[in-house]
């Protein structure tokens, strides 16, 4: 099963293609709240495969500076993946970032 597009994650099929996508959020304190980053990941996933993962958690806020990265964890039916978020640009109060899901599970 291959799903082209912004963000693809294997739920039940191990051969699903994992790719990257971008998101954009408003930044108030020069960082993006970790819950907002997790919500963006879940939302992009739902757009691509039609369902959200069981959970996405991020350990801390994402600094709103170009090149900053954060590794979050995506969990679906007990299978966990690292999700790397990288800020690509900051324009005023908007931070744009790429989302990359690891191609192999953590566990």
Automatic annotation (TrEMBL):
Superkingdom field: Bacteria
Could you tell me which InterPro entries the record lists for this protein?
A: DUF4333
What are the DUF4333 domain coordinates in residue numbering? 17-92
Supply the alphabetized keyword list. Answer: Signal
Endpoints of the signal sequence: 1-22
This chain belongs to the protein called DUF4333 domain-containing protein
- According to its UniProt entry, this protein's organism is Nocardia aurantia
